Amino acid sequence: MNRRRAALSWFACFVAAASGAASLRAQPAPPAANAGAPAAAGLPNDDVVVARVNGEFVPFREVRQQLAGVLQGRPIPLAIWPQLSAQALEQVIGRRLVSAEMKRRGLKPTAEELKQAEENFTKNLTRRGITRADYLKQNALTEGDLEAVRTWEIGWNRFAKELLTDDLLEQFYNSHRRDFDGTELRVSHILFRIEGHQDQATLAAATAKANSVREAITSGALKFADAAKQYSTGPSREQGGDLGFIPRHERMAEEFSAAAFALRVGEVSPPTTTPFGVHLITVTEEKPGTIRWQAVREKLVAAAQPSLFRQLVAQLRPRMSVEYTDAIPHFDPTTGQIAPGRS
Fold first, then answer.
1. pLDDT of 29-72, one tens digit each?
2. DSSP string computed for 99-127
3. Fold category of 3-176+293-339 in CATH
4. What distance in Å separates the CA atoms of residue 153 and residue 136, rounded to the nearest whole number?
């Protein structure tokens, strides 16, 4: 069986695993190159070994960089530190496993690819008006970190394109057709705006109120448009919450669009949180799209990569050695529960 057919057989199940909008958003990011270390008391030093993959040490630095890419400079919320660290460590371990497979297949950057990446990086720094030294200092990165980013990005993009055959991309498109075919939905919403600081208590109160209103709507006690006029704090309240037609991407916050496109006409979403507050969303009309999968092939490749990454990790992990040092919280490989670690 040639490599192309083997790829199709090996990862045919990834399409089913990709269902749901959240899977389209979680990218297998390389070490962060745009944020420094998150500030939180009691974190390990960068050189503390947090795991071993095939006998190779995984330092906490890689986990910190993964967290930095997610938090974008915000401090780590200590209440959810165990969950964040466990997820970040799994992502780092996953990249190590996939990198080992790419190395086995000889998927390393060429000199020309590395040269092009360096030129693009230099142009980007010039455009932003900062020096290389300042960039490295601001982001707590070394030249070695930059090389790791480039090696990963070039190798992973090539590997993913090799595995994502036309057959798989068409299957992925068919499973997520409305995300890519230009479909537009006419939506209405009820906004429960959170005044002041959005913390756990205010978010929980808004969500509870939204759930109460949703129950009244779904039980038939209240029409959605009437509920919007009565409860919504958004400007569309006078129109019964009507926002008109929206596309899948760009116009609305991603959380809002993803929730809307998970609905069919007449359904009401669970409470959905965006930077504006908590929303209830309903779809009142659908305008089907006509864009074929071939016209959005590159978008499909990008969107399918997270699911492909997870399937690769699941396939590769039993074949390779992964050990935890308990230096930070991590997922117990037997129970799937979070082991607290020593930090």
1. 444 433 333 344 467 888 999 999 999 999 998 998 888 777 76
2. HHHHHHTT----HHHHHHHHHHHHHHHHH
3. Triger factor/SurA peptide-binding fold (1.10.4030)
4. 18
